[in-house]
């Protein structure tokens, strides 16, 4: 049996996630559902990144212990993902015991390779990124100036892996997708890689450095290892795909493979990087007060209405600005009119004469666009089948047919509907299930509208 292992970035727990975080979960979910459908043994990991200075600070502001604080956030995040029907196999928390132990072992393996040494850091730190930065201004946190800090840190010898990374990423086009992001990564590597801190001295909310507990392991070093903790436990490493936003691409495409190489593990096969969502022309952020929770969209558009919009029109290769008007328009045109109408129409026709039974063809599930991570194109293709079937019905005029002629065209329609339903499974699992239940027969009956129109 083929195995398939997909991960999302784990969300930072200084606050509850919002729609900006949903996109990568939906991509990973569609991919995991697709691989389960074609019979692969599938592992899907998501979770929360719970250590670090920002979390410590947020907990302090609320006057509670960091662990109590992150417990609440992790529960709230899980609720949001279940509203979107995200089918993860484990919700990983970096405070989980197995991870703490594994992370320390990883650190020691890397140290044994001669890649960790004690030195002094003197430079800038962006608290928003929880990262040491070179630039005076952080492009992801324009409102938060990076702070000058000087402290004793353990460093990871990233510079040693400069040539390895350059060669590897040049020779493996599939390692960073899309190609534009691979070029950005290569350009960054060619400018020269500097060693980075892997410990903090004045941050107590973290995993202790095993052989020097005055330090805690730097939150990024700790967080990245989550993929491997699970992968080794489940015997599914290396990961097939890590899915993440562009703000995390350097950590995943540069730091992470160097860390793995150092500790003696295989590299993941693909790092899939997506762009950002903005809302009414603004970044989605708590400080701007425009946060929408995934569950709020689900209340309005239903779980599959929400999933469809993001999977079809989300920021796969470009930043995308969304408005509620746009989601409503897409919902009404593609789902209420497009898919919903077609299903109602064919069910009504089939009520007159039950067409011949057909068997579900597993081949319908195969989709080259999903294999190439083109989720938008995969859905576009299904929507061409929807309009082709609409046109076919107009051409056949089944309302004028009777007897065998009628039965023959209806059997064809039914086959097309089953094909559409199977192909929809990874994207709109509940809708697919409803259509399959309605059309598997032997009798086909009209049902309630799949997507009632929204004003
Ligand atoms: Zn930043």
List its traits:
455 residues, seven-stranded parallel beta sheet, elongated, 16% strand, binds zinc ion, four-stranded antiparallel beta sheet, alpha/beta
Verbal overview:
There is one protein chain. The protein has 455 residues and is α/β, with parallel strands linked by helices. It is 49% helix and 16% strand. Strands 1, 2, 3, 4, 8, 12 and 13 form a seven-stranded parallel β-sheet that branches. A four-stranded antiparallel β-sheet has the order 6-5-7-9. Strands 15-14-16 form a three-stranded mixed β-sheet. Helix 9 (249-263) links the parallel strand 12 and strand 13. Helix 5 packs antiparallel against helix 6. It is elongated, with a radius of gyration of 25 Å. The two termini are 47 Å apart. Zinc ion (ZN) binds at residues 126, 128-129, 138, 140-141.
What's the overall average pLDDT, rounded?
A: 94
Percent range of helical residues: 40-55%
β-strand percent reads 15-25%
Biggest beta-sheet profile: 7 strands, parallel
Enumerate the spans where pLDDT stays under 50 for 5 or more consecutive residues: none
Topology:
Blueprint: E1 3-8, E2 11-12, H1 19-37, E3 41-49, H2 53-62, H3 66-83, E4 90-93, H4 97-112, E5 116-126, E6 131-133, E7 147-156, H5 162-171, E8 176-177, H6 179-190, E9 196-197, E10 199-200, E11 216-217, H7 219-224, H8 226-233, E12 241-245, H9 249-263, E13 270-274, E14 277-279, E15 282-283, H10 294-313, E16 320-322, H11 324-352, H12 368-371, H13 375-396, H14 403-424, H15 429-439
Parallel strand pairs: 1-3, 1-12, 2-3, 3-4, 8-13, 12-13, 14-16
Antiparallel strand pairs: 5-6, 5-7, 7-9, 10-11, 14-15
Helix pairs in contact: 1-10, 2-3, 3-10, 4-9, 5-6, 10-11, 11-13, 11-14, 13-14, 14-15
The protein binds zinc ion.
Zinc ion binds at residues 126, 128-129, 138, 140-141.
